[in-house]
Amino acid sequence: MIDVDTFTPAIVYTIYIASTPEKVWQALTSAEFSRQYFFGFAVEAELTAGGSFIVRAPDGSLHIDGEVIACDPPRKLTVTWNVNWPGLVEALGPTLVTYEIEPAGESVRLTLIEAHDRPISDDILSGGRQGWPAILSSLKSLLETGHPLAVKMAPPLRMLAALQAMGITTP
Amino acid sequence: MSQPDFVYVTYIETTPDKLWHALTDGDFTERYWFGVRLRSDWKVGSSFEMVHGDGTVSDAGKIVEVDPPRRLAYTFVNLSDTYRNDLPALATFELEPHGKLVKLTLTHEGFAPGGKMLPAISRGWPAILSSLKSLLETGRPLEIPRAAIKLES
For every residue of chain B, which 3-state class applies, written as one string? Predict the structure, then answer.
């Protein structure tokens, strides 16, 4: 088990959603929902500390190969968000992602925290800075309107170039 | 390339023209901005004010850039004693068409070191822009009590 106290937040993104904590939790942890707002990616989580946390790409391949570190439904979920590209975790260390879900009046405040155990360059972080707002904006739309956003994401070229420069093979 | 003090990105199912209106029309801002009407003639160099329901002005600054419906920039600082060590910081909105959506990027920078504005706006903007997105997409703003945002904690 990793020591979460050695991780420092690198990206924090907060969004308010007209929903309930239970529905936001379900949207974050189920493939049925995630496929809709997360570009067809499927979240498969064993919702207990030590359980597996997997995200599959639309073609079924393993994209995120992580572990549930802390699970307190419907308030807090911490997972290792390790992208399954050869050499990535060895080079960057594990990525820790925490979702915090709090009631805020009749709305819900969802806070995403991406944390690392070592300094990570802005080039590498640009991937998350580009991706998280699109994913979570679409999640909000899905819960509020019943349909996700048709976000057409360009590949995170700046991040991919930085990874390739470190010798990491990217798709 | 270093990051500005605060950056917030959201995607909204709307048009750049509607989003521009939502950012600059006082009647509209009052609905999603916790009762705040923005008051300005939106000309570069003109004054910019946040006006509350009782007529009081909480924050004030100047218009810096107006390029509808693409870029809008203004400075403001809160006028209360809590923020006496702060200076007007620059908020820039970029509106980019993104298929059937608009990508809205807000950068806010130039805060006085050690001031209290940066932590306050870091809590305020996600609530304001989430409510704006809800209003444009669903016709209803969010019901978030001001206390729940913990602006001054």
Answer: CCCCCEEEEEEECCCHHHHHHHHHCHHHHHHHCCCCEEECCCCCCCEEEEECCCCCEEEEEEEEEEECCCEEEEEEEECCHHHCCCCCEEEEEEEEEECCEEEEEEEEECCCCCCCHHHHHHHHHHHHHHHHHHHHHHCCCCCCCHHHHCCCC
A137 contacts on B by Cβ (under 8 Å): 10-12, 133
Nearest CB among A104, A107, A141 relative to B137 is that of: A141
For B92-117, give one letter per residue: b (16+ CB within 10 A) or e. bbbbeebeebbbbebbbeebeeebbb
Residue B153 is predicted with a pLDDT of 53
Nearest to B13 among A15, A103, A141 (CB): A141
* H or E stretch at A37: helix A31-37
Beta-carbon count within 10 A of A53 CB:
24
Give dist(CA A57, CA A43) in Å, integer.
Answer: 9
Q: What is the pLDDT of residue A102?
A: 97
Say whether residue A140 is in contact with chain B using an 8 A CB cutoff.
Answer: yes
Q: Cβ separation of B101 and A109 shorter than 8 Å?
A: no
Q: For A1-17, how does the pLDDT look when each residue is reduced to its tens digit (9 = 90+)?
A: 689 999 999 999 999 99
ipTM: 0.95
Q: Is B96 within 8 Å of B105 (Cβ atoms)?
A: yes
Q: Which residue shows structure tokens 């992602």? A: A97
